[in-house]
Amino acid sequence: MIYTDVLIVGGGPSGLTAAKMCCEAGLSTIIVERSHILGGQLTKQTHKFFGSKDQYAKMRGIDIAVKLQEDIASFNTLTMMLETTVVGLYEDKVVTILQHNEYKKIKAKAIILATGASEKFLAFENNDLPQIVGAGALQTLVNLYQVIPGKSMVMIGSGNIGLIVSYQMLQAGIEVKKVIEATDRIGGYKVHASKLKRLGVDIQTRKTIKRAIGKDQLEAVEIVSIDENFKEIEGTSEIIETDLLCVSVGLSPLHQLASMMNCQTTYISELGGYVPLIDDYFQCSVPGVFACGDMVGIEEASSAMMEGYLAGLYTCNYLNQPHLEAESLISHYENQLYELRNGLFGRKTLRGIEKRKENLIHA
Amino acid sequence: MTNRIVEHPILEVKPKKKVRFVFEEKEVEGVEGDTIASALVALGVVTMGHSLKKHRPRGFYCAIGNCASCDMTVNGIKNVRTCITPLEENMIVKREFVEDIQDDIH
To answer: What domains are defined for chain A?
Structure first.
């Protein structure tokens, strides 16, 4: 059995920032990360962030990932376990992990869940053909591994991720044949859409994919126009030849570990799906278990980092070993979060957060 | 290796050390920093395996070790999530539930 004050599950933006706070407060901390690298989604984000300096604005995600790791590199109370997957989580805070084909157990005084999210999928004929990939996955292949999996692509979804990834695929030399959107308006920021349009990319609304065509891998897609009830309009079928189809229809929180520990979870559409219910201090219904980042509601990485700092600070408070600057840091990061949610997208998130709080019953 | 970026407006593209491994009994090469899956995609492999019941081809999908689409047998260990496993020299990589696949490796 390995003993630690804090166990953090997930080494992405919220896990790393939470770790920094716990380490600064002098708590022994373990980060468990299933991938072989830290940084989560940041490691593939070549674009610059919006917001203010405190929210890492004007920095590229890839550089933020490096910065967050540098911030915690010098703490000898921190253990990072990469290529390690949590396979069992129990209410007494004993955690079973699998690392390099070996099972181990960790006993923690507090647990911070920061598992992030996975990409949503879409139902259509032949949707399982090879070369139909998630937007984040394509971004990882191209930006992180510098591998180009195809010559051309069609993007489903015009949210910020769909638009940004389309632009980044152009930068890598992949032809973007079309971006399609099922609703009547482009979902992401205008600035991203304009960049694509300037480069001649066709963004079409009220369009959806009907089927993928191909035998052993994707060869073409059939797209159709849809009406306001999302029903196909006859006679609008169009076949586009392409060797990549990218699906960018949103993300779902990876809530499963919270459920495994009997933390209360509820479906909240504004937050992207099932989420663990948390109070104002990021604590789940099981005392001593905290959750933050995309796992408790889909937002941008900037918010995930602010939440990570806060969840870390509140975890220190829970363990009666508060961070020396707890008070000022908490108010600082709460303000940052408030600012980040001040926009149009924030309103939906705030509605979801209200629901998340209303439904919580502490054990 | 034609499927790798050679020039990029933002990313630094550095020459990387080659990593030799064995895929489906063929000697192939990836580069340092690759996962098993990224090396295979760079080699032009699109079928990562087949589904259990209907034997439909499975491709690279999530890249975060969540979807099981790229699971393979590596050095005799089954169900290795190749998208989050770093490539190592001399690894022996095999698909699972294979149906007669004709690879077109570059």
So the answer is: 2-118+251-358 (3.50.50.60), 121-247 (3.50.50.60)
